[in-house]
Design brief:
Blueprint lengths: L4 H11 L3 E5 L3 H14 L3 E6 L8 H12 L6 E8 L2 H10 L3 E4 L6 H17 L3 E6 L3 E2 L15 H11 L3 E4 L4 E2 L10 H10 L4 E3 L7 H9 L2 E6 L1 H16 L6 H24 L2
Helix pairs in contact: 2-3, 2-10, 4-5, 5-6, 6-7, 9-10
The structure holds 1,3-dihydroxyacetonephosphate (13P).
Length: 278
């Protein structure tokens, strides 16, 4: 069933677990996330990145997720991930998304604050939740996200930003990367602790793929209530498809679709179990 972003994440922060936010690009990935939520009895966030608009239109994503989430008893949120355009955010709200992320992380602080507050006014009037981002993640391997210079989130800025914008969740930059790590992750849990001490709202960890379990568990203990996973879903599905195609037998495109659903379920299931274990 469709659920409220703000309530889902506020409960997670209060009860010290995280909800997985899994990126989808089409029917198979959406089905993989929702079926895993049903099978494991866990809430899930189906995240559609604005960068995947060439794959699917917003109302098509909303139609599929609304239909499929009505078939399961677990809470499902449909979230617009990493969107820099106010106009696209308004279209997502009209299409039936339950939450949106306004990504003003590349803007100067005051501009990010003002634009985020504008998004919050419009979204909250429609009963839609908002995530914003302060600081910026670096780009790792196998990611199709934009190249970015890593900037850690300032706790003092985060405190003012949250109080003035009234966002429902804040994505922080503490050393995780979008994509797989090229070396050893340098996650600064100390910065997270300082942010969590002054920001009572649910905090969001982007760049979940490949982050060591111990770091994930520490982050959940220290205020992270939503964790985003994208690259690992794509990599695992491609590995299975490559092995299948390389095995030499005859195949059919419909079989590749079913393999994709199974691959999504493997990765989503692994992370859902971990996020609940903190
Ligand atoms: P990964 O691709 O590193 O899992 O990051 C996903 C993400 O943060 C999407 O917003």
């Amino acid at each position: 069933m469709k659920a409220s972003f703000a309530e889902m994440l506020a409960t997670a922060r209060r009860e010290h677990y995280a909800v997985g936010s899994f990126n989808v690009y089409g029917y198979e990935t959406i089905r993989g996330v929702i079926e895993t939520s049903r099978d494991l009895g866990q809430p899930a966030i189906v995240a559609f990145g604005a960068g995947y608009l060439p794959n699917m239109e917003l109302d098509e994503v909303a139609g599929l997720v609304t239909t499929m989430s009505a078939q399961v008893a677990t809470p499902i949120v449909l979230h617009l991930d990493h969107c820099k355009s106010f106009e696209t955010i308004v279209r997502a709200i009209k299409a039936g998304f339950t939450s949106v992320m306004f990504d003003g992380s590349a803007l100067p602080f005051e501009e990010n604050l003002a634009e985020t507050a504008r998004v919050v006014r419009v979204a909250h009037a429609a009963g839609v939740g908002v995530e914003a981002e302060l600081g910026a993640l670096a780009k790792g391997a196998h990611s199709n996200e934009e190249e970015g210079e890593e900037i850690y989130t300032s706790p003092a800025e985060a405190e003012r930003f949250v109080a003035e914008t009234k966002v429902d969740a804040l994505a922080v930059s503490i050393g995780t990367v979008h994509g797989m790590y090229k070396g050893t992750p340098k996650v600064d849990v100390g910065v997270l602790k300082k942010i969590a001490a002054v920001c009572p709202i649910p905090l969001v960890l982007h760049g979940g793929s490949g982050t060591p379990e111990q770091i994930i568990l520490e982050c959940i203990t220290d205020g992270i209530a939503k964790i985003n996973v994208n690259t690992e879903i794509s990599m695992h599905a491609l590995d299975l498809i490559r092995a299948h195609l390389g095995s030499g037998g005859e195949t059919h495109l419909s079989q590749v679709g079913r393999l994709t659903v199974g691959a999504v379920k493997d990765v989503v299931g692994k992370y859902m179990g971990l996020f609940r274990n903190a």
